[in-house]
Amino acid sequence: SFEKTLDQQDKTLVQYFDEYKAVRKEIAPHMDSIYVLGLSLQKQSLEDYLQHVTEPVLVKELKVIDQIVKYKIEAGKKVADENTSLANQSTTVMISAILLAIILGTFLSILMAKNISRIIGSLVKESQFLIEAATNGKLDVRADPHKINFEFRDIMVGFNKTLDALISPLNVSAEYMDRISKGDIPQKITDVYKGDFNEIKNNLNLCIDTLNELVKEMDKMYEAHKGGDIDAFVDPQMFTGVYRKMANGINEEVKIYIHIVSDIMGVLMAYSEGDFSPILKSLPGKQAIANEKM
Q1: Coil, helix or strand for 176?
Q2: What's the half-sphere exposure (Cβ side, CA atoms, 13 Å) at 199?
Q3: Which of 110, 188, 237, 250 sees the fewest Cβ atoms within 10 Å?
Q4: Cα–Cα distance for residue pair 118/88, rounded to 1 Å
Q5: Model confidence pTM above 0.70
């Protein structure tokens, strides 16, 4: 209704007020930029933005206000002869409103800058708290979102969720490696992981499969030898790397004892037939007791 009254009295003044409202609307997009800079924790960039970007808009606003003031002054001069008292009163009211708008605008700008600076400070403090905890190996430490302004609280919630997603697979991997190192081969990991974590899971499962297969082959060889099949060995072609080396080492160790037993049996067989010419070759270490007994 105020603008309708102005439109009836003076269209030029309405135009100036439209310009004033347009300038005020220009401030809105800057609020989004200030919010983004606040999320990025770039305190210096935020202060620069408030100084170099927001200030020109305020200057533009003051220019429009100055136009309104000048127009009112000129209008007041035109009607000074007819209604000097009314013109002066209107000018005083307008100037007071303008001064009040300037004061309020300046106060809000300062208040907003201080508030954003405080929020960024709290974000940086919580981030440093997480970094220090992780550096000291305290992987279960999380940030407290309630220490952050509610508008930026989701940032800390996101940090905590990221740490949970990162540390949970690491804890599983550490537990499995601990059990494997103690000879307790666990079941394969069935949890669903993505990306690099899925590769870690696949590698651990492959290690579990290989160890289980090696134990299985050794059990088969043991049962075969127990049943008298002394030619049974672990198949090294089923394994790769150090596991193949382990399989070959087991086979070679068994072959050594098989050869010794075969040599002893050969000498004993000759002796049983009355041929005492064979002599058991010298054996190393504690195996030399066989030479003494023969």
Answers
A1: helix
A2: 2
A3: 237
A4: 45
A5: no
